[in-house]
Every structure is written in structure tokens, then in C-alpha cells.
Amino acid sequence: HKLDELDFAGVRIFLEPKNFRLTTALGAEEQKNLSILLGAMRIRYHLLIGNRKEAEAAYLAAVDLGSDYQVSQLKGGLFLQISRYLATRGETHIAMQWVKKAVLQYQGAGSAAEEREATVELGGILLAEGRLAEALEYFNLAGQSDPQALTVGGLRLAALRATVLFIQGNLSRAQTETQSGLAQARALKRREW
Length: 193
Hints:
The protein is built from nine helices and no strands. By secondary structure, it is mainly α. The two termini are 18 Å apart. It has helices at residues 8-12, 28-49, 52-62, 73-88, 92-109, 112-128, 132-145, 152-167, 171-188.
């Protein structure tokens, strides 16, 4: 979540493989989990700074990391970042498959907040495909899981939901959603809105 707060200096050191001398002291399972975590972080980091070539390299390195049948929150995070990368390339159909895998991983691991984030991402992909009714359904589903959550993700949800409502021509509900998002942004003291 440090990356989403744009605190690149706080995580940059973790993205360089040369800084991981301790990996030899880890067992096989811990090394695998660390690889999954770092794979997801590298994809997200490079997407946020706009380095598409490095994001693609991180994606190619990470795509096979979650191929086993174990359910884990870490794999959900990796699948979510893979989905985001594919969505930036316009490959929304494949991105949707990855984000659905992320939702299932988070559900299986009992990670409600992360499941909500992945559900918002799924709605965003549906919005990108022009499937407005389905997108709004997923946004509403995500909003029901924790309607009082004041987070940057909650702001994103409000913005996306307002966008769908506006496109659908439901201007009064879009305005209400926008006002709600502005109130949340003020409460968080954020300018992202």
C-alpha cells in the first residue's frame, strides 16, 4: 500500500534483487512467498512510475509464480497486479480473468479488504469494456462490504461509480456520488478526487 501512497523511496530498496542476501537463509516456502510479494510490488511500482518496459519484464518474470493450487493473500496480490498490467495494455478480457483469480484468492484467504479492492478493479475492467450495468453492480457490491471505509480505494470506488452513473445518464445519482467522494477526500485530506 506504500506504492499506492506514492512513497517510492520507501519501497525502492526492496525491488532490487541484489539487496536480498537473506534469501539463502529462507526455506523454500518463504522464498516462494517472497518472490510472489516482490513480483507484485515490481509490477505495481513500474506501472505507477510509467516504466512500461520494466513493468512488462516484471510481468513476464511473475506470471508463473502463482501456478500452484494453494490459496493465499500474496497470490491474490500478484494476480491483481498482473490484471492491472494487462488492463494498461488494453487486454481487458485477459485482465478480467486474472482479477477474477485475485478475487477468489482473497475470498479463500479471508481477506475482505483486499477482496473489495479486487472487486473494484473488476468493475473498472468492465467499465473499460463498456459493460456499464455489470460494472455498477460490482462497484455496488464492493461498496456494501465496508461502506464507511475512508481510504484511497474508497475514493476510487466513488469516482468510478459516479462515472458509470454519469455515462448512464443518471445525473442526480452521479452528483450525489461525486459529493460523497468529495466529502471522503476532505476527510482524508486528499486531493486525488
